[in-house]
Amino acid sequence: MFDLKCKRMDCKFNEKCNCNSKKIEVNPKTTCKTYEDCGERKEMPDEIDQVPSRKNTVVRCKAKCLFNDNTVCKANGISVLTNNQSPQCSTFMPK
């Protein structure tokens, strides 16, 4: 997956609104399970574009979503936003 945007600037995998985790997991309630609090930053606007040479990142998903294909997200990209203090996949589209 090429386009991985994240507004959780307090996550250790967030690099200027780009997720640099090697894998991402989304639970059935669309919360990003890969999130790890670094306790340093706050939510900020995008600062840089996606890196064109991004390695393919696998996004595992357990949500009942149109993009979920046997627990693998098939969307071209996802965005993770803050919702009630938890990082939520905002690309979620119910089946």
Detailed description of the structure:
With 95 residues, this protein is mainly β. It has one domain. Helix content is 0%, strand content 33%. The strands form four sheets. It has a three-stranded mixed sheet with strand order 1-8-9, with no helix packed on it. A hairpin with a 2-residue loop joins strand 8 (77-83) and strand 9. The mean pLDDT is 84.
**Approximately how much beta-strand content do the residues carry?**
25-35%
Number of helices: 0
Mean pLDDT: 84
Structural class: mainly beta
Uncertain spans:
none
Order of helix and strand elements from N to C terminus: EEEEEEEEE
What can be said about the biggest beta sheet? 3 strands, mixed
Determine the N-to-C terminus distance: 21 Å
How helix-rich are the residues, as a percent range? under 10%
Provide the number of structural domains: 1
Strand order, largest beta sheet: 1-8-9
Work out the radius of gyration: 12 Å
Outline, from the CA principal axes?
globular
Query: How many strand elements?
Result: 9
Compose a concise summary of this entry.
This protein is mainly β and 95 residues long.
Q: What are its keywords?
A:
33% strand; mainly beta; three-stranded mixed sheet; two-stranded antiparallel sheet; 95 residues
SSE layout and pairings?
Blueprint lengths: L2 E4 L7 E2 L2 E2 L3 E4 L31 E4 L6 E2 L2 E2 L3 E7 L2 E4 L6
Parallel strand pairs: 1-8, 4-5
Antiparallel strand pairs: 2-3, 6-7, 8-9
